[in-house]
Design a protein that fits this description.
By secondary structure, this protein is an alpha/beta fold. Helices cover 38% and strands 20% of the residues. It contains 13 helices and 16 strands. Strand 8, helix 5 (184-190) and strand 9 (195-196) form a beta-alpha-beta unit. It is globular, with a radius of gyration of 21 Å. The chain binds zinc ion (ZN).
Length: 437
């Protein structure tokens, strides 16, 4: 997938490699900052924790190397994390940065402009970064707002995580990501620009999203909990529509990720060739087989299920149509993740934050451990797995030479207690320190 984040950081990585080659050996790369790490989990896929390490970071924001012991370089800033546990910046593969669910959700739809959404997004992006998440995939936001926010963060004008953005989700007319539950004249105005009916129209909607700036295509293959319509959570895009979307996206170098709850929609989407599944609530044996066949990722978003379950019981936020679906889907997600775990389905970390409050993303780690995963496995989902899922392997997810310096630190040992990740004390994103408590 060719998207801005990849090409931009790919270029940085290439420059760093060039600087380290024999070609430039006389002028050894400029070390701008050195993190002294008491304990270091540089590559979560190995689980190996080293002690007393130095991470060398270049002025361009790339990692130059890791050296044993606490080393110094003339002119380099020393960042003391000797009492801390240092690990790669976290990745959330499913957020909605420009919005947060609250009691005013229906009014928000008619009162907020895309500029309001962009400015809200800037605030939530900062909160997300401070929580230790240095990369996110935003899977559903107004095109103008999220693409502008992505650019502002890339250019260093706004603090926030690297954003892989879908913009508007491709959805059937009246489906989960279209406007719903409003008066007909209002619906006519608020209709989604990416809503479609029929294979040709859905291919067109997909192409238009890519033209507008989508890094990845998000589709709503089934109904969803938070659309204000009693339309269930079964398949909503037809098989021909699904195939047309996947073909159009792949031909233009974009992956497709499918929001899907009902097993019929999950399996139809997988058969049509989508690259990953979001939620996966009613995953069945066929889904497991299809996911494993294509080595595809599941992003279970346990947080969303847990949170809407709480909201359904509290009252005051969800509409009656949403409440019925929240009661049904919430508890089911836990059983589904246990089933996925037993069948070795590949999982990437994602929370659907925006449904739950921004900055709480790390609560997902506790839910994953509650479903039977080890803390290290949960950390792998939010680092190496999510980087692989988002095709950012050569950019982030590990602390290694040539990758972006996306680095966080916590007190305590997150491989023993994931709750420590709820309280991230140090955050560096692309070589810049944003938090050091
Ligand atoms: Zn979502």
């Amino acid at each position: 997938m060719l998207h801005r984040a990849t090409t931009f950081f790919g270029a940085i990585a290439a420059l760093a490699l060039l600087a380290g080659s024999s070609f430039a050996q006389d002028a050894s790369p400029q070390v701008a900052r050195i993190i002294h790490a008491g304990r270091l989990l540089a590559d979560p896929s190995t689980g190996r924790v080293a002690t007393e390490q130095s991470i060398l970071v270049g002025a361009d924001g790339a990692i130059l190397g890791i050296e044993a012991g606490y080393v110094t370089r003339e002119g380099a800033e020393i960042i003391d994390q000797r009492n801390r546990f240092v690990l790669p910046g976290l990745i959330d593969s499913h957020v909605h940065l420009t919005h947060q669910l609250g009691p005013g959700q229906l009014l928000d739809e008619v009162q907020l402009t895309s500029s309001d959404a962009a400015l809200q997004g800037a605030g939530y992006a900062r909160v997300t970064l401070m929580a230790g998440f240095t990369t996110v995939a935003d899977l559903g936001a107004p095109n103008d707002s999220i693409f502008a926010l992505r650019r502002a963060i890339n250019e260093g004008r706004v603090p926030g995580p690297r954003i892989v953005a879908s913009g508007a989700a491709v959805t059937p007319d009246g489906g989960h990501a279209d406007a719903n539950g409003l008066a007909p004249d209002v619906l006519d105005v608020l209709r989604s620009s990416a809503a479609c009916s029929g294979a040709d129209a859905c291919a067109r909607a997909t192409r238009r999203q890519i033209q507008a700036g989508a890094d990845v295509i998000k589709i709503t293959a089934t109904g969803g909990v938070l659309s204000n319509t009693a339309a269930g959570v079964a398949q909503q895009l037809t098989d021909p529509e699904l195939s047309a979307i996947v073909q159009a996206a792949h031909m233009m170098g974009r992956r497709v990720t499918a929001h899907a709850h009902g097993a019929d929609g999950i399996n139809a989407a997988l058969r049509a060739g989508v690259d990953s599944i979001e939620h996966g609530t009613y995953l069945d044996r066929d889904s497991v087989r299809l996911l494993r066949q294509g080595n595809r990722y599941l992003v279970p978003t346990m947080m969303a299920g847990w949170w809407v379950g709480q909201l359904a019981e509290q009252g005051g936020v969800l509409t009656p149509a949403q409440t019925v679906k929240a009661r049904e889907v919430g508890p089911r997600l836990v059983a589904m993740v246990r089933m996925a775990r037993a069948n070795n389905v590949r999982i990437a970390f994602g929370t659907d934050t925006g449904v739950s409050p921004h900055g709480m993303n790390a609560r997902e780690f506790q839910l994953l451990v509650g479903a039977g995963f080890t803390p290290l496995q949960a950390i792998q989902m939010a680092t190496v797995n999510a980087a692989d899922h988002l095709q950012l392997n050569s950019v982030t997810g590990r602390i290694a030479p040539g990758l972006a310096a996306d680095i966080i630190a916590v007190d305590g040992d997150p491989t023993a207690d994931v709750e420590t990740l709820m309280n991230v004390r140090y955050v560096m994103a692309r070589g810049v320190t944003h938090k050091n408590e």
